Amino acid sequence: MREIDEPIPEDEELYREISAMDVDGEGLYMEAVDLQGMSVSRRKYRHPEEIVPGRPERNGLAVITPGMLPTDIEDSQYVFFAKDLPIDENEAHAEIWPGRAPSAERPHGDRDRQKPWSPGRPLREKMRLALAQRFRIYRAPSQVAVAEREPAPVEKNDAER
């Protein structure tokens, strides 16, 4: 496994596997955002065409860069940042974490934490929406995958009609 390579440059593309149910026009629904360490793949270590879906329905890709991550939540008290976290199965693995912004008391904000910080419910929804709105669709997910997940209509026989 490779060494941690931080900071991730502000213009490096980060890719998130998505399904058709995650897409809201040109961006993502807030329900597609995971605040407990949202997995992404770094372009520096894996070209987007090399990303194989972990699940068949997650065959699309959304893209964001660290420079696009929201930094203006609640008067800039809260931010998102990208952490390089390579794993054996995916050397390109990184995560997007929410956290408190750097301050006099916390010069690095929450960047040095060992696990993602968890905001309270009202702030959590605001943060999820802010991040979802920054993602852009890189490769649209296949609609076929959605059709495969929908239950087939139940046919009624003559006795049930």
Beta content: 15-25%
Q: Which range best describes the helical content: under 10%, 10-25%, 25-40%, 40-55%, 55-70% or over 70%?
A: 10-25%
Label the structural class. Answer: alpha+beta
Number of distinct helices: 2
What is the H-and-E element order?
EEEEEEEHEH
Q: Taking all residues together, what is the mean pLDDT? A: 88
What Rg is obtained from the alpha carbons, in whole angstroms?
Answer: 19 Å
Main β-sheet, in a few words? 6 strands, antiparallel
How far apart are the first and last residues' alpha carbons, in Å?
Answer: 62 Å
Q: Taking strands numbered 1, 2, ... along the chain, how are they ordered across the largest sheet?
A: 6-7-4-1-5-8
Number of strands: 8
Characterize the overall form: globular
Low-confidence stretches: 145-152
Tell me about this structure.
The protein is an alpha+beta fold and 161 residues long. The protein is built from two helices and eight strands; from the N terminus they run E-E-E-E-E-E-E-H-E-H. Strand 2 and strand 3 form a beta hairpin. The longest helix has 14 residues, at 121-134. The chain starts with 13 loop residues before the first strand and ends in a 12-residue tail after the last helix.
List the helices and strands and how they pair.
Elements (H helix, E strand, L loop, with lengths): L13 E5 L4 E2 L2 E2 L9 E5 L17 E5 L13 E7 L8 E8 L20 H14 L1 E4 L3 H7 L12
Antiparallel strand pairs: 1-4, 1-5, 2-3, 4-7, 5-8, 6-7
Keywords:
single chain, two-stranded antiparallel ribbon, 13% helix, globular
